[in-house]
Please model this.
Amino acid sequence: MTGLIYKDIVVLKKQLGYYMIFLVFYAAMAVMGMGAGIFGAMISLVGLVLPMSSIAYDEQARWDKFAVSTPAGRAGVVGAKYLFTLAVVGGMTAVVVALMGALRLAGLLKESVAELALTALACAGAVLFMNSFTLPLLLKYGAEKSRSISMGLFVIIFGGAFLGGMVLKSWGSLPAPPIWLLRALPGLLVLLVAGAFGASYCIARGIYEKKEL
Amino acid sequence: MKYALEIERLCKDYGSFRLEDVSFAVPGGTIMGLIGENGAGKSTTIKCILNLIRRDGGSIRVLGMDNREDERAVKEQVGVVLDESTFHDTLKAPEVGKILRRLYRSWDGVVFERYLDKFELPRKKTVKEFSKGMKTKLSIAAALSARPRLLILDEATSGLDPVVRDEILDEFLAFIQDEDHAILISSHITSDLEKAADYVTYLHKGRVAVQGAKDELLETHGRLVCGRADLERVDPALLVGRRVGQFGCEALVKDRRAFAQLYPELTVDPASLEDIMVFTVKGDAQ
Model:
C-alpha cells in the first residue's frame, strides 16, 4: 500500500509545487491585510482537489486495473487513497500552521498563534468531513461523473448552511448554548469528523470490492 | 504434472456476452496462448483470473491457490502486463521501480535495472515520451522484476513491430526455462503464439472452440485446397469450415491422417493457427 501512496506523491509532486507557490502568494495577501482566514481556504482547496486529481490521473493511465492486479489489491487501493487524503490534509495543515506561526512571530499577523492554529485545524476537519462524502463517490463513479455529484453536494451543504444562518438570524437572538456543550464542542466535532471519515472508508471498501474494472 | 494455472468451468455473464464453461490448465515450464477474435472472451478470462471482475461460476486456481481466497499470496507471484500502458505519463522508469518495490515483497531492483539496460529504456524520459514498444517493454521489465512464477499478458504484443515482438518473445522463452515458471498470453497475433506457445486455447464466442498442445493441433489440422466438385464429395463431418471462391475452394480438415486415408487423391497442406481461427469462425457462420 505504501507504493500506492508513494505513486500519488510522485505523480502529483508538480501540482503540490504549484500549491506551495500559491501559499506564498496567499501569505503575502494575509500580510497585506486580508487576514489569516485565507490560509484555511488553501487547506480546503488542496485537501479536496488533490485526492480528486489522483483518482482522475489513475483513470487516465488505467492504473486502477494494474493496482488491483498487484498484491495491494482492492483493499490496498482504497486504503491508500484514504491515507493519501489524510497525509495531504495533515501535511498542508502543518505547513500552514508553521507559516502562520512564523508570520505571527515576525509580527506580520495580528491573530494569536492559538487562534491561527484553531482556524487551520477547523478547516482541516471540514475538508476531511467533505472528503468523507466525495471519496466513496469518486471510487464508485470515477472523477468525471462524481465531479458534478460533488458540486451538487457542496451546493446543498454550503447553501443549506447559508440558508440556515439566514433563518436563524431572522428569528432574532438565540439563547446561548450551555457551557458544557461549548466545552465539549471541539471534542464532539473531532469525533464527528473521525467517525464520518471511518464510516466513509468502510463504505468505500464495500463499493470498491464490488466494482468491475 | 504441476499446474501454474487451472481454470474449470469459468462463467461470466454480461447479458449481451457470456463466457461459458471455459476450462484449461497451464503446466509449469510452458506457455499457454489464449487466442480468439476480438470480443471472444480472452480479456474477460484474464480479468477473472486477476479478480478485476467477479466470476459467476467455476473455479480458478493459481499456483495451487484459490485466486480469491488467497488473493494476496497469488498476486505476489503473478506478473501482469495489460493491453495498454498502465503507468502514468509523468512517471520515469526509475520511479516506476521505486513504486513497485514497495508493492511486491519479492521485487528485485537489480533485475529491473538490468532489464532497463537490456531494453534500452531511457531513465530520464517520462512514459509520455516513450513509444508503444518502449511502454510495453517497461511493463514487461516491471512484471519480470517482481520475480513472478506466473506471467499473465493480455494482448501485450499487439501493435508492436516484428523486431520488438521477437525480442519480447525471446524473453518469454528465457523465463519459462525454469520449470516453476509459466506464461499465459492472450493475443490475436497467432504467428507470435506459433513461435512461442506450447499449448493453445482458442476462445470463440465465449466458449473454448479448440484446445490442446500447439504442435499437436498444427499436426492434426490441415488446409485442403481443391476444386468445388472435390469439396462437394468430401464428408462435411471431416471439415471445420470452408471458403468457396470463383477459382477454387479451401477448407480446414480436422484430422489430416484420417482424411488422407479416405481421400488420398486430395492434397492437404499444414494448417496455421490463423487457419484454425479463421475457418472455425467461417464454419460457425455456415
